[in-house]
Amino acid sequence: MIEVDTLAKHFRAADGTLVKAVDGVSFSVAAGEIVGLLGANGAGKTTAMRLLATLLAPTSGTARVAGHEIVTDPLGVRRHLGYLSATTGVPDRLTPREVLSFSGRLHGLAADAVAGRVAELVATLGLEAYGDRPCGRLSSGQRQRVSLGRALVHDPPALVLDEPTSALDVVGARDLLDLLERLREEGRAILISTHRLHEIERRCDRFVIVHAGRVVAQGSREECAGTPGGLERAFFAAIAGSGAP
Questions:
Q1: How big is the CA angle at 78 (ends 76 and 81), to the nearest 5 degrees?
Q2: How many Å apart are CA 153 and CA 99, to the nearest integer?
Q3: How confident is the prediction for the chain on average, in pLDDT?
Q4: What is the CATH number for 62?
């Protein structure tokens, strides 16, 4: 469902230095699978996800979402991908229902289809108690549910989620991850990045570890988290053995 093939993104820093934010990355996410994209700050996770979401153009390589290529068919990618940014908030003055309705119309859904989809998401995400309350009066966990609903409003088969639990407490994070497991059971392909390794150690089917823009290790849950020391030890061992600074 998500195929990343030697994807690269290079920038020029202010001093002219070439920065290889993503440097020939390859991995995949199948339908009905959650894959954790792991790495320290600056490893290239967010840049890779922005490339998948067609917010950036690659320097080289490619990626496909549901068979649609990110450079030649970005609109096809966006129709099949739900993207949750680590930094994009929800408008304080709009209610969750209004945010979801507006997002649905932006995705080209007809007015009657939007109404039904919004009602479905309000129930699925547990927004009933505050669906008509301005988002500025919601907790961070409630706002994150609205953001996830915005990514799901067009019913995409693939999701790319950048640090979705970063603003949540332990209960909110558990609830969101429980929801992602249900979405996986529906057959969606889910790519999730996080620094909270303990949260996803038993939630993901596979892991991809990146460092200095490159994939330094990847494997199944059993391969990465099933050994003494678990996922954290596998993560640090992969970085230490990468040879990158």
A1: 110
A2: 10
A3: 92
A4: 3.40.50.300
